[in-house]
Design brief:
This protein is an alpha+beta fold and 129 residues long. Helix content is 45%, strand content 22%.
């Protein structure tokens, strides 16, 4: 992930390649993020993960077009798409810019999901606070 995701989520994710097509995300948590920011990003991540799962599990689907998004949110889509083995590209001009993702034969669901990592992080913040 880029520095952007590290700053927004305050979560450092280490990509471990196990075999040719088995990718997993291992969380190494940093300092606690602001709760509202983490919850908002988790909501975005859940939406993205749902769209990716639908695309990957539907053999006849080859692409998914996200609605218009802010630049920061489009960046999250691109970065997560890479870890799912999907291709992505931004289309149109501002203010109608959106992201389209494309399935590939290597596309798969990583484990654990980023949304699960964020859920654990938010839960641990409540227990600490």
């Amino acid at each position: 992930f880029s520095e952007y995701l590290l700053q927004v989520l305050k979560v450092r994710l280490v990509i471990e390649n196990k075999g040719s097509n088995n990718r997993s995300l291992s969380p190494a948590l940093c300092s606690p993020p602001p709760t509202t920011s983490c919850k908002a990003k988790r909501s975005l991540v859940l939406t993205i993960e749902g769209a990716f799962a639908t695309l990957i599990h539907n053999p006849s689907a080859t692409r998914y077009s996200f609605p218009v998004m802010k630049k920061e949110d489009r960046r999250v889509v691109h970065e997560l798409a890479e870890h799912y083995g999907l291709d992505s590209e931004s289309q149109d001009e501002e203010p109608r810019r959106n992201v389209v993702v494309f399935s590939r034969p290597i596309s798969s669901i990583p484990s654990p999901l980023l949304s699960h990592v964020l859920k654990q992080r938010v839960g641990s913040m409540y227990r600490q606070g």
